[in-house]
Amino acid sequence: MLMSLENLLSDKRSKIIKKWRDVIVETYPGDTQRFLRKEKDQFANPVGYVIAKEIETLYDELIKEGGIDKISACLDNIIRVRAVQDFRPSSAIGFVLQLKMVIREELGDKAPMNGLSGEFRALEDRIDNVALLAFDIYSKCRQEIYEIRVKEVKNHLGKLLKQANLTIEIPEEKPDL
Amino acid sequence: MADTPKPDELSKVDHTPPLFKGWMDTPVEIKPGIYCYGSKPKDLKYVDFPNPRDWSPVDDDWKLPENWEEIVHEGFKDRLDRFRSVKLFMDICVRCGACADKCHFFIGSGDPKNMPVLRAELIRSVYRKKFTTGGKLLGRFAGARELDEDVLKEWWYYLYQCTECRRCSLFCPYGIDTAEITIFGRELTNLLGLNTDWVAAPVANCYRTGNHLGIQPHAYKDMLEFFTDEIEDITGLRMDPDYNRKGAEILFITPSGDVFADPGTFTCMGYLMLFYYLKSLGLDITWSTYASEGGNFGFFTSHEMAKRLNAKMYAEAERLGVKWILGGECGHMWRVINQYMDTFNGPPDFLEEPVSPITGTKFENAKATKMTHIIEFTADLIRNNKLKLEPSRNDNLKVTFHDSCNPARGMGILEEPRYVIKNVCNNFYEMPPSTIREQTFCCGGGAGLNAGEDMELRMRGGLPRANAVKYVHEKYGVNMLACICAIDRAVFPDLMQYWVPEVEVTGVHEMVANALVFDGEKERTTNLRGEPLPGMEDEEDV
Ligand code: SF4
Ligand code: SF4
Q: What is the pLDDT of residue B15?
C-alpha cells in the first residue's frame, strides 16, 4: 500500500525535526552550538529552547496545512531573536527554505516517486510561502527596532523640553488677532 | 544567598568545558546596532580626559596617540600593582567554563566572545604576553598574544558589550569577577580617549551642571513644580518640596532620570508625595538642584572620575549642613556608594549615621557612607505601621519585580522591595528563581550601554530578562514590571516593546504613592499616570 505524503512525513517527524533544528543551530559558532543543544532549561537557554519548541509546532502545522496565525506566531518567536543577532537577512530566515532540503534528504528517492510528486510539490510550495511570510516577519522586526530607536531619541529631547515649558506649541485654533 | 550553588556543588555539575578553539583567529568586525558612538572631543576636554578628538569606531583610523602601546603597557602595569583583584583575576582562571553560559549577552547573542571567560581572555592573552614568562616564551601555545590595533579594537568592542552586572561571578568557583576585568579594561581604553558618547557626555554634564543631561537648576526646579501641579490635580493637595535648604536634616538625591524621563517621572512624583505625607510626622528633607544626579557615569570610565562625581554629592551635603543622605531608586549609584564611596571620599565625618526620624530605626548598614536607600527607608515605615495604604488602588496591576543587578547582587537588597510591593498592591508574581535575586538577569543596558544606536545589543542582552517576564505574563497575566533602578526604567520600556509589548514599567514608589491615603485628599479617580483607578472607569473627570 502506498503511504500518503502526510503519513510519510509524520513517520519521519522526529528525524526531520532533529535535522532541521541542526540546520538552524549550525548557523551559530561552534562553542555556541554546544550550548544551544545541551542546555535544556528555557530560562538559561531561551534561544535554544525557542528554536526547539517552535520548529516542532511549525513542522506539524506545515505538513497538515495548518493555520496561518499559528505559523506566523512560531515564525515570529524564532525570527524576532535572529533579527537582533549577527545574521544577514538571508541567514536569519534561510532555515525555512532549508526544510525542503532536509525533507528531500530524509525521504530519499521515495519522495518524487510513488505517486507523491503532486503532493510533494504542493508541500514545497507551502514551504516557499512560509519563507515569504518569514521575510515579512523579519522586516517587521527590523522596522520595530528602528521605531524604538526613533522613539528613544524623541523621548529624550522632545518631552523634556515640552514639560519644562521650554517650547511653544502651535495652538489648535488660530487665535483672532 | 538563597538559590545560589555553592562551589562544591558547582564542581559536581555535569559540565564539559567549552573548547575555545580558534577565537584568536576570528578577527573583530564592528557592527552597527552593537557599538555606541565615539565620544566628542568637547566632553573629554571638559574633564581633562586624554586624546580628545572626533572619532568613529567604524573608521579604520581611531586616531590613537603615537605611543598608544606604551600608554597601555604602563597603564596595565600600574593597575596590576594597584588592584590586587586584577592581578589575581588575570592569573587564576582555569578556563573551566562554568561562567561561560551565564552572561545575558552570550545567551542572547550566541557570540562566544560574550562568554565571560572569553571576554576576559581577550585581555588576559595580552597580559600573558606582556607580564608572564610562559607567555613571553611560548606565545600562542600559552594562550598569549601581542597587542596590536586589531586586538585593541576587539577589546573595545567587547568591553562595551558587558554591563558589569557580575552575574558571571556568581558561578565562578574562584569568585573571579569579570565585571572588574571590564572596569579595568575600560580604564585602559579611557587612557587612549576611546570613550563612548553616551558615557562621556553624561560625565561632562554631571561634572559641570550636576546631572547627566545638563539640566540647569531652574529647569530642575521647574520639573518638580510641574509634578506638584500634576499631583494637586489628582489628590487636591499641594506638595511643597523645598530646594537647597541649609540646615535640613536630610538631603535627598535621586538619579536625574526620575526627574526627566517617563516612567521615572511617576516614581519621582511618588517621592514627593511620600515626603509630604511624612512631613507632619517629623520628616525634614530637602532636594538639591546642584547634586541633581545620583547616577555616576564616571564609574564607566575610571575610578578617578567616579570619585570626582561622587565627591559632588557629599560636598553638597556638607554645604547644606544636613545630617545624612537619603537616596532614590537607582542602580549603579548604589554600587558606587556601597562598594567604593568610603575609599574614594570617606569617611564623611560631617554627617551622622542615618536614623529614620519617623520610626527611630538606625540604618547601621549605612554607618560608613551615611546614605540610605529609599526602599529600606520605606520598608521600615511600613513595618512600623506609619503609612496608611490602600493597595486596591493598584488592583489594575499584576506586578512582577526585576532585581536590578547593583542593589540585588551588589548590595543584597532583596527583601525590602518585595515587602514594599506586597504592601502596596494585591497582585504580585515572582519570575522563575533562576532569573531573580542574586541570579537576576541584567536589563541589558547598564554600565552606559543604554544608548539608542546600540539597540540590537540591548535587545540581545535583555532577552533572558524579557523571556522571564514573558513567561509570567503568559502564565499569570502580569502587566507591570517593577524595579528600583533609573537605568532599568529607561531601558525596559524599549525592551518590553520589542519582546513583551503588553507589559509596562514602573518604579516601586509610584505604586507606593498610588496606594498612600492622605488625610484631606479629594476622592482620587486616577493614578499618577492619569489612568482611571480600578472601579473609577466611568467617573467624569477621568
Ligand atoms: S559582568 Fe555581566 S555582562 Fe559582564 S561578562 Fe559578566 S555576566 Fe556578562
Ligand atoms: S572565570 Fe571562573 S568560571 Fe569562568 S572560566 Fe575562569 S575559572 Fe572558570
A: 47
CA distance B310 to B333: 9
Contacts of B59 (CB under 8 A, 6+ apart): none
Residue B71 Cβ < 6 Å to ligand 2: no
B94 pocket-lining for ligand 2 (C-beta < 6 Å): yes
Question: Residue B460: pLDDT above 90?
Answer: yes
Task: Determine contact: B101 vs chain A, CB below 8 A.
Answer: yes
Q: Which domains does chain A have, with CATH numbers?
A: 5-163 (1.10.490)
Judge if pTM exceeds 0.90: yes
What pLDDT is recorded for position A107? 86
Domain ranges within chain B, ordered by starting residue: 16-195, 204-515
**pLDDT for residue A65 is more than 80:** no
What is the phi/psi pair of residue A113, to 5°? -85, -165
- Closest-CA residue of B relative to A149 is B452
DSSP conformation class of B290: S
State yes or no: cis peptide before B263, omega within 30 of 0: yes
CA separation for the pair B316, B291 (Å, rounded): 6
- Distance from Cα A162 to the centre of ligand 1, integer Å: 37
- Residue B138 is given by DSSP the state H
User: Measured in angstroms, how far is the CA atom of residue B165 from the centroid of ligand 1?
Assistant: 5
Chain B residues near residue A53 by CB distance under 8 angstroms: none
In this predicted model, what pLDDT tens digit does every residue of B463-504 receive, in sequence order?
Answer: 999 999 999 999 999 999 999 999 999 999 999 999 999 999
Nearest C-alpha in B relative to A152: B452
Summarize pLDDT for A79-99 with one digit per residue, the tens.
Answer: 999 999 999 999 999 999 999
In testing the pocket of ligand 1, which one of B109, B167, B439 has its CB within 8 Å of the most ligand atoms? B167
